[in-house]
C-alpha cells in the first residue's frame, strides 16, 4: 500500500479526546496489549499528531504519529500498527517467520505465500482468518511487515502450506517507514531455528538482504537528491524483480510442487499484481479533483509563477496560472473537490510549507512567498499537456501582435473496424493519416489485390476485407466507385487535426478541430458582453489575449473557466467587440477565417 510516494493532505496536532479514542481503538484492535503497553504506544503527554494521506492507489488513510514516527494507521475504520510500534512491543501480534531474501519481495508489494513460511518446532502460531499478523525473518524476531491473514493457521496446515497466507499492508523500508526517523531494523533474539533436515543453502547475499534492499531502494533516489536531507528522499519502487531470486532448499521445492503459482520465495503472482489491482480501484470524484488541483498548483508554481509576480492575488493564482496548466480534456472545479473553497486549499498547501498566504488588505488574500526549494516542488515533473499554448507577446505602443498561426492539416485516425484493412500495410489502430495518404493506401491496396473491375474501370470489386470494413449494417456490398471507396473509408475513420506551429514539433488534436467561437450575450439591462472560446486550440493564451483586447477597446476583461463546455477557458470583454476580435484574429494574427465563427454578429456601424 505504501510502496509508492503518497500525498499528505493535512497534518494536525492530536487533541486529548482523540488521543483517548485512539487508545481505546488500539486496545480493541489489539487485545493482547496491557495497560502499560497502551500507555507506552499512546502516551498522555508526549507530542502526537494526525496525518491524512492519499495513497498512490487512491486510498484515504489516517496515520497517527508519536513524535516523528508513524505508530498506527487507520484504513476503512480498522487500526493497524506500524513497524515502529511492533519494534516497541514485538509480541503484540502473532508472527509468521519467512526467509531473509523474501524481504525484497515484500517491500516490492508482494503478499506472503505459504510455501515461504517457516514452521518452528512448535508449529505455526494460533491465528484466525482475517486477523492482524506480523512477519519476521529467520534469525531475527523483529517484525518487518504487518498484514491480514487469508486463512486460519489450521486451514494453512490443512491445505499443505500452499497459496496466499498474508495480505501485506505495510513493510519495513516502505514510504510510511520512510516518513519516520528511518530507524534501521533492530536485532531481536529469536527461538526460531531452521527445521531439522531443511538447512537452507543461503549465501552472503541472502543474509545481507536488508542492506541490499536499502541500496537498491536508494540507488536512484541518491543520484537525483544528493543535496536533500534523508527524510525528503523519494524511493523508486523498482526492486520487485522476483525472477532474479534463486529457489531455496528442498523444503521450498517440495512446497512449490503443484503449488499455486508462487515464485519459490513465498511471494506469488498475486503479489505481483497486487499494486495494479489497487490502482484499478475506483477513486471518488472529490479525490480526483483534489489530485488535479494539486497537479495544476505544482505545475503553476514550477512554470508560471515567478518571484517578481509576488505578492500575487490568490484569485489570479487560480485563474491566471493554475487554470492554464489544466489538461485540455479536464477543468478545475473547486466545488467538486474536498476543499470546496480556494482559501481552504491554499491553507492546506501552506500547512505543507509550499507557500505563504497573507491578507494584505481587508478581505483580500495574496500569496506573499513560495518555498521554491520544497521537495514536492523540486521533484514534481511537469506533465505533457495535449496542446501547449503558444504565448502571444504583449505589443508595444503602436505595435501589432507577432503571433504566427499554425498550419492545420486535416487528418483521419484508423478505427478498430478499419484496423484489419490497414494492418496489411503495417498501419495500426490509432495511427493518423492525411486524406492524400488514405487515398494512396486504398489505390495501392486495389492494385496489389487486382480488385479493379475489368468491365468498368470506374468500379472496384469489394473483397471480404473491404466489405467488413466499409459496408453498412445489412448491406450486401459487391462493387464501389473509386469516389465512394475514398468517401466511405474517411467516414469510417475518426477525424483529427495536425497543428504545426513555426519552430515547434507537430501537435495532433483528436476529434474535430473546433473553431474559435465568438458570442455576444445580453446581460442585465441593455448591457452586452462578448465571449471568446477555444483560443487554446490554436495556441493562443487566453490571459494574454484578454490583456491585448483590453488595451485595444479600453474595456474591462476577465478570463474564467468556460461555462457549459467540457474544458478550456473563456475570455469576456464588456460590450459588443466582435469586430475588434475578428480584426485581431483574422487580419492581424492571420488565423484562417474558417477557424473563427460568430464574426457575423459584429455591431453595425451607425450612419
Please name the defining characteristics of this protein:
Uncharacterised_CHP00451, alpha+beta, SUI1, single chain, 4 domains, MDM2, flat, 6-stranded mixed sheet
The geometry reads as flat
The poorly predicted ranges are 196-209, 219-265, 268-281, 387-401
Rg over CA atoms, rounded to whole Å, is 32 Å
What is the CATH-assigned architecture of the largest domain? Roll
CATH topology title of the largest domain: Sulfate adenylyltransferase
The tally of domains stands at: 4
Q: What percent of residues are in strands?
A: 15-25%
> If strands are numbered along the chain, what order do they take across the biggest sheet?
7-11-10-9-6-8
Counted beta strands: 25
Helix share, percent: 25-40%
Largest sheet: 6 strands, mixed
CATH class of the largest domain: Alpha Beta
Structural class: alpha+beta
Q: Which whole number gives the mean pLDDT?
A: 79
Oligomer: single chain
Organism: Branchiostoma lanceolatum (Common lancelet)
InterPro entries: EIF2D, eIF2D_N, eIF2D_SUI1, Pre-PUA, PUA-like_sf, PUA_eIF2d-like, SUI1, SUI1_dom_sf
Keywords: Cytoplasm, Initiation factor, Protein biosynthesis
GO biological process, one term: formation of translation preinitiation complex
Amino acid at each position: 500500500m505504501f510502496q509508492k510516494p503518497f500525498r499528505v493532505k493535512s497534518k494536525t496536532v492530536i487533541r486529548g479526546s482523540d488521543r483517548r479514542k485512539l487508545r481505546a481503538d488500539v486496545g480493541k484492535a489489539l487485545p493482547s496489549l496491557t495497560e502499560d503497553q497502551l500507555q507506552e504506544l499512546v502516551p498522555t503527554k508526549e507530542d502526537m499528531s494526525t496525518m491524512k494521506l492519499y495513497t498512490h492507489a487512491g486510498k484515504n488513510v489516517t496515520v497517527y504519529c508519536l513524535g516523528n514516527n508513524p505508530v498506527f494507521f487507520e484504513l476503512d475504520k480498522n487500526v493497524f500498527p506500524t513497524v515502529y510500534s511492533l519494534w516497541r512491543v514485538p509480541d503484540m501480534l502473532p508472527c509468521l517467520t519467512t526467509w531473509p531474501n523474501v524481504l525484497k519481495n515484500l517491500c516490492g508489494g508482494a503478499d506472503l505465500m505459504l510455501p515461504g513460511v517457516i514452521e518452528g518446532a512448535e508449529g505455526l502460531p494460533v491465528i484466525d482468518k482475517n486477523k492482524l499478523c506480523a512477519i519476521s525473518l529467520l534469525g531475527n524476531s523483529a517484525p518487518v511487515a504487518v498484514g491480514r491473514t487469508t486463512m486460519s493457521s489450521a486451514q494453512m496446515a490443512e491445505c499443505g502450506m500452499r497459496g496466499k497466507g498474508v495480505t501485506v499492508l505495510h513493510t519495513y523500508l516502505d514510504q510510511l517507514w520512510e516518513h519516520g526517523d528511518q530507524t534501521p531494523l533492530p536485532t531481536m533474539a529469536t527461538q526460531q531455528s531452521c527445521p531439522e533436515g531443511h538447512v537452507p543453502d543461503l549465501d552472503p547475499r541472502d543474509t545481507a538482504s536488508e542492506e541490499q534492499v536499502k541500496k537498491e531502494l536508494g540507488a536512484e533516489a541518491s543520484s537525483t537528491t544528493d543535496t536533500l536531507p534523508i527524510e525528503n528522499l523519494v524511493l523508486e519502487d523498482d526492486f520487485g524483480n522476483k525472477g532474479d531470486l534463486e529457489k531455496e532448499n528442498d523444503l521450498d521445492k517440495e512446497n512449490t510442487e503443484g503449488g499455486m503459482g508462487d515464485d519459490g520465495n513465498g511471494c506469488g503472482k498475486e503479489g505481483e499484481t497486487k499494486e495494479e489491482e489497487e490502482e484499478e480501484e475506483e477513486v471518488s470524484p472529490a479525490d480526483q479533483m483534489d489530485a488535479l488541483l494539486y497537479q495544476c498548483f505544482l505545475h503553476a508554481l514550477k512554470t508560471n509563477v515567478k518571484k517578481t509576480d509576488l505578492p500575487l492575488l490568490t484569485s489570479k493564482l487560480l485563474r491566471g496560472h493554475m487554470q492554464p496548466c489544466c489538461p485540455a480534456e479536464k477543468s478545475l472545479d473547486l466545488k467538486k473537490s474536498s476543499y470546496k473553497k480556494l482559501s481552504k486549499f491554499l491553507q492546506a498547501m501552506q500547512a505543507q510549507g509550499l507557500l505563504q498566504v497573507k491578507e494584505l488588505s481587508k478581505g483580500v488574500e495574496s500569496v506573499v512567498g513560495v518555498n521554491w526549494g520544497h521537495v514536492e516542488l523540486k521533484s514534481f515533473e511537469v506533465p505533457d499537456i495535449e496542446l501547449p499554448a503558444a504565448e502571444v507577446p504583449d505589443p508595444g505602443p503602436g505595435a501589432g501582435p507577432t503571433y504566427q498561426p499554425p498550419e492545420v492539416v486535416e487528418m483521419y485516425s484508423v478505427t478498430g473496424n478499419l484496423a484489419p484493412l490497414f494492418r496489411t500495410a503495417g498501419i495500426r489502430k490509432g495511427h493518423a493519416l492525411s486524406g492524400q495518404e488514405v487515398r494512396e493506401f486504398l489505390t495501392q491496396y486495389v492494385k496489389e489485390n487486382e480488385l479493379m473491375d475489368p468491365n468498368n474501370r470506374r468500379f472496384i470489386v469489394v473483397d471480404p476485407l473491404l466489405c467488413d470494413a466499409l459496408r453498412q449494417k445489412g448491406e450486401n456490398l459487391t462493387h464501389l466507385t473509386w469516389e465512394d471507396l475514398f468517401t466511405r473509408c474517411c467516414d469510417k475513420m475518426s477525424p483529427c487535426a495536425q497543428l504545426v506551429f513555426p519552430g515547434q514539433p507537430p501537435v495532433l488534436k483528436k476529434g474535430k478541430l473546433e473553431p474559435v467561437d465568438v458570442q455576444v450575450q445580453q446581460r442585465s439591462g441593455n448591457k452586452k458582453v462578448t465571449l471568446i472560446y477555444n483560443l487554446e486550440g490554436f495556441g493562443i493564451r487566453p490571459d494574454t489575449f484578454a490583456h491585448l483586447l483590453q488595451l485595444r477597446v479600453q474595456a474591462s476583461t476577465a478570463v474564467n473557466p468556460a461555462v457549459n463546455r467540457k474544458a478550456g477557458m473563456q475570455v469576456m470583454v464588456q460590450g459588443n467587440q466582435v469586430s475588434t476580435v475578428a480584426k485581431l484574429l483574422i487580419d492581424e494574427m492571420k488565423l484562417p477565417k474558417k477557424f473563427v465563427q460568430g464574426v457575423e454578429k459584429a455591431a453595425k456601424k451607425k450612419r
